[in-house]
Amino acid sequence: MTLTTRVVLRAVVVMTLALTIVCLITYQLVAVSGRNDTDGLLRDEAQALGNEFARQATASGGLDGVLSPPEARQAANTALTVHPSSVRHVALINVVGIRVTATGGPARLAALSRSRDAPPVEPGRLRSVDTDAGPVRVLDLDVIDESGASLAVVTVFASLEPANDAAASALQRAALAGVVALVVGGVLLALVVRRTLRPLHRLADAARDITPVDLSTRVPVPDTDDEVAELARDLNAMLDRIEDSDDARQRYLAAVSHEVRTPLAVAEGHLELLETHHDAGPQDIADTATTVRRELHRLRRILDDISDIARDPDRIDIRMGPVFVPDLFDAVATHVRALGLDGRVTLRPAPPCVLVGDQARIEQSLTNLVGNAIDHNPPDTTVEIHARVDADAHCVLITVTDDGNGIADELLPHVFEPFTTTRPAGRHRTSGLGLAVVDTLTRAQHGQVQVRTSPAGTAVTLTYRDA
């Protein structure tokens, strides 16, 4: 079942319930209105008949003021003659144990008033009673003389069937109008919903055109400022992120493939050369072994760097603890001498301070920065490492500065991305993982990396929290 069908069906169900409630309310309102009209008629007739009987009783009482039974019946007959039954109601007077009924009125109610099934007398009450003549409204009014004695009880009642019939007729008309409105409204609703959901169909069509091979398709954004337009914008933004991620993944895989292939190709070429030269001397074998070992070491370093970058910073093996900065500088100096760079790298005396971090990872970061500065700059480039304490910020800053050519403006926003290098070719080509590894390791220690560059050189500052 389509979304349009579900929406229309649910809307029709809601409309049906609403129209049903409206019809029932209409029926009750018409029924109550008819009953209130009947009640008003009964009150007026009962009051007028009671007043007339009281006048006739006073006139018939004679000089002694005592009303005899014959005089009471005569007063009742006279009052009922003056105020007889109408086409809507029947009136009668209960006096001295006798029921005196007026002439006229609806035949069924008149027959009911003379039968034993007439509603019992309950003075002062206006009530509905179910009878053989149908539902009726009955009012009994007690007629009181000047001394407070009861002279008679005036009874008037009228049928509720006209009011109920009017209510039923109104219900039928409302139901008919509701059915027509439901049919017309359902058709219009289906058209409106279909038109409203048309952008969703376009979104679905565009989404079906998107494949893992081609992520360039974008869904159309409707001109309406509604949820559908917001969904289209969010979907396009998601597609942008997926495409960027896929492009980065493709570049990453291509770079990894190239970086791994290069040292393998060099090692393989030297081994093949050694195999084809059967007269190779010990020096040739030693040179080949040295080359192969160097390329394998480079390959292992690339794989280690890739592994560090691929990990989430929170999952890198970091052993946080206090690091005495002078001891850190001594360890870095040892690495520099091992690399044969002690003539090009200068370490200024470190301040006697302690930072919080992993000394082995900081040594790795500083060694990478030194190698990055040496590999990406001219052969005569020198590097300087120094540290200082920022007491206000409660941190220690270690800066690696070189006097090389600096980083090009177009590369600066990408220096922390893997495989970004200023030497894309040649035998001095580097993997471009140095700064990416440094950034990953430093963030894993809750530190920060800042790069400042100019044509006069580059300075990379690592910031760690002091102890």
What structural keywords apply?
467 residues, alpha+beta, 5-stranded antiparallel beta sheet, 5-stranded mixed beta sheet, 53% helix, 17% strand, rod-shaped
Structure write-up:
The protein has 467 residues and is an alpha+beta fold. The strands form 3 sheets. A 5-stranded antiparallel beta sheet has the order 2-1-5-4-3, with helices on both faces. Helix 1 packs antiparallel against helix 4 and helix 7 crosses helix 10.
Describe the structure in brief:
Helices cover about 55% and strands about 15% of the residues. It has helices at about 5-60, 70-80, 105-115, 160-195, 200-210, 225-275, 280-310, 325-340, 360-375, 435-445, and strands spanning about 90-95, 100, 125-130, 135-145, 150-160, 320-325, 345, 355, 385-390, 395-400, 450-455, 455-465. Helix 1 (about 5-60) packs across helix 2, helix 1 (about 5-60) packs antiparallel against helix 4 and helix 7 packs across helix 10 (about 435-445).
